[in-house]
Amino acid sequence: MSIAEKNCFGFETGYRDLCKLFAIGHYLPSVADSEVVEHFFSAQQYAILWLRQMNQPKGEIIPFQYQGVDFAIPAQGRAEHIQSFDWLNMLYLTIVTGRNEDLNLLIGLLHKGQVVWRSEQNRYHLEIVLHMLGLQANCDITDLINRFIAHIQREGQTPKERIPSYHGITVTLGFFDVMQAIHQQDQVAYNLSMHRALEMHKEWWTHDKDFKTDPKGYISLHLLTAAKYAYEKYGYTLDVESDYIPSYLYQR
After folding, report:
1. How far apart are CA 148 and CA 184, in angstroms?
2. Which end of the chain, N or C, is less packed with Cβ atoms under 10 Å?
3. Global pTM?
4. Each residue of 134-170: pLDDT tens digit?
């Protein structure tokens, strides 16, 4: 694939750069919340345009606006694969921005087999997230969680294998507990589980991390999505303000 093909109009590059600008800008006092929100919404827009450009039939015209100017570009018609963690980040952005019409494109890619995962644990994580967000209800969540726990607690893991297992404990199960409390409509349990999940998010991302050079983990996208879900469905807010889940985004 040529550079021109890969970065046609720079949608992929723009998406990734805007995600970084959003994450870093959120922590800089000199950057207004409104500007951070604009970066967040623009990142979601670029992500969807990138996917549409790759996946719509070749030659089909995709209209969009950039800095107030109207553009129209042809789709490339390439059914490419996308890693599950990239796909989930786009899903989170789409839910938090409230652009639910774009969920059809994302779920369509999943059903076409274009979303791939690097490990069995990635697959478990994806299935748990989808089930708890109500986007894949055709599974037994109790059995799924039991199999996931058995996987991350299996004996004989190498030091390298223990790292993703630690992610499963701190991130996947933390998200599951939060969403379970939301579905049970227990606001007290929701706040308690969110507190725990935020601490686990911090524990996962801050070990051996230098945030001056690595913006990952600045924002907890999965917990921000859970907060948006709780706010939209039940009007739940959190009893503590956390930089990991900015209220100016999920309460919009």
Report:
1. 22
2. N
3. 0.89
4. 998 767 899 999 999 999 999 888 888 888 888 899 9
